[in-house]
Amino acid sequence: MIKTIRIGAGAGYSGDRIEPAVELAEHGDLDYLIFECLAERTIAIGQQARRADPQKGYDPLLAERMLAVLKPCAAKGIKIITNMGAANPLAGAAKIKEIAQSLGLSGLKIAAITGDDVLNIVQRDDYRIEDNGQPVRSLGEQLISANAYLGAQPIVAALQAGADIVITGRIADPALVLGPLIHAFDWQADDWQRLGQGTLVGHLLECAGQITGGYFADPGVKDVPALARLGFPLAEVAADGSAIITKVAGSGGQVTTATCKEQLLYEIHDPQAYYTPDVIADFSQVQIKQIGPDRVAISGGNGRPRPATLKTTLGYLDSYIGEGQISYAGPGAQARGQLALDIVKERLTIMGIVASELRYDLIGVNAIHGPQLAANAAEPDEVRARVSGRTATMREAVRIGNEVETLYTCGPAGGGGATKTAREVVAVLSTLVPRELIHPAIHFEES
Fold it and tell me: Which of 82, 263, 420, 447 suits a disulfide with 35, CB 3.0-4.6 Å?
């Protein structure tokens, strides 16, 4: 029986830094390197990209990440597990194969996991949107995607079949870690205590740098060293699921009980009932102990039988957003910025712009806290006026930014640095699908 395995977190979101993953691959003495790169809206955007080009839909940084880590991982026998397949795991696997061949790497077995795309299922049957109680069919032609959260078992099956790299679509974030743990330690599918503990480790690793001081630092309150070269975490996991969270020696950041506790509670609604496809995890009795510099021991995770349904993210075409910004500085900057907003507000009324939502903000004054909390704030020396609106058409969205830009010559004195954007909005909702209707599949490529 293997005593411990080492799993490194190479990414915590789609656009994360790449250097820390290379550092883990080269110096982390890893067995597995995971890349968690998929958010709820990200996969809907991937589906949109796939509709435009059937060969797209995987993570936009997939190629860059694989170019950076494939060689050191192959040389050291480190297996890679990632959800960078997003809306198109098959195309993502083909791209990894292409990159491996370009690097002269042969014999790598790449597994693509599919089955999370359940658009046909939710369109066929009578499902309810959990967010508002409406039927899924109420979205009509706006609905572009439906992706169910898969669990760890297809990853386990791929590893048992000899995969060196596993690329998935929508899969529960902790499952990227739980899969290799089940495989390495031969945990049973109903060993709820170990599955709960393994899910705990996965949850702690899934956001990468957030557990080594990123999204944690607060100068003078919670100081973190060397954030510019923040090291990403790794876990040394024992057969009972207990783990030590650490990082590569000499890398930036820190691993402390505080960083681990903040990540433990991150995005957790009920610590006694964290629903995942593999287990309903219970984190209420977790023990966190500092056992050395940048070494924190984690234990006490538990669980109970997995849910009968799988959360499914619905992506739909919601609207368009148009935005324009312009800056004012020096004496009277706030008054000139407010005048700019008033002018645009009147102009949009004159032009008959139809918007379901409009915002007029002075960034640096009231854009975050709103006008009531900002009422007694000291007047700043510079502001940025921002107008944004939600519209039914791209044409209307474009006109909002255009009106802000005209403030250069038709607005208050001293306006500069104007920008404008208009974009389609892909929004997300959720439904629940019985797990017995969802059938993951594994497809292999070999370099």
Answer: 82
